[in-house]
């Protein structure tokens, strides 16, 4: 059976990322989908070190390395990333920063990882907002095409953080098509 890994970068337990993850799980009939909230993982920020990750192994033994290791066992990786104040959540940057240790030792896996990675950004944008560009940076060292969908909440008539993105049928169609569900 096909396996899907869904990682939410939201600090909220029940919000648009959680609702979107449940929608994806329910539409993934021929797959086993695993939902992970990054706020439940123990990930230490990069600090108070001497760049040991660049010469061997990170000094922090947390969930960052094991998360990336677990992605080797799945066929699709879906990252749900909310946007706050014009940027991805700080949890996105925290995992990205801590991924250095993993990629220093697993460089040959990077293109395969990117090929499986589907990123969905959720939030409001204006024309000068670099939200999508931040995601595209992950793909800049590779020839793998990026899989990025930005769901602009205001475009769908949502103005409050309490509004549910999935109440809009167009959003459901876009997500279904983007993920080939």
Structure characterization notes:
By secondary structure, the protein is of the alpha/beta class. It has one domain: Flavodoxin domain (Rossmann fold), CATH 3.40.50. It has six helices and six strands. Strands 1, 2, 3, 4, 5 and 6 form a six-stranded mixed β-sheet that branches. Helix 2 crosses helix 3.
Low-confidence stretches: none
Q: Characterize the main sheet.
A: 6 strands, mixed
Give the overall form: globular
State Rg: 16 Å
Summary keywords:
6-stranded mixed β-sheet, Rossmann fold, globular, alpha/beta, 181 residues
Q: What is the gist of this entry?
A:
The chain has 181 residues and is α/β, with parallel strands linked by helices.
Helix and strand layout, with pairings?
Blueprint: E1 2-8, H1 16-27, E2 31-37, H2 63-70, E3 76-84, E4 87-88, H3 90-105, H4 110-116, E5 117-123, H5 131-136, E6 148-152, H6 169-179
Parallel strand pairs: 1-2, 1-3, 3-5, 5-6
Antiparallel strand pairs: 3-4
Helix pairs in contact: 2-3
Protein name: NAD(P)H-dependent oxidoreductase
InterPro entries: Flavoprotein-like_sf, FMN_Rdtase-like_dom, ISF_SsuE-like
Domain NADPH-dependent FMN reductase-like: 4-99
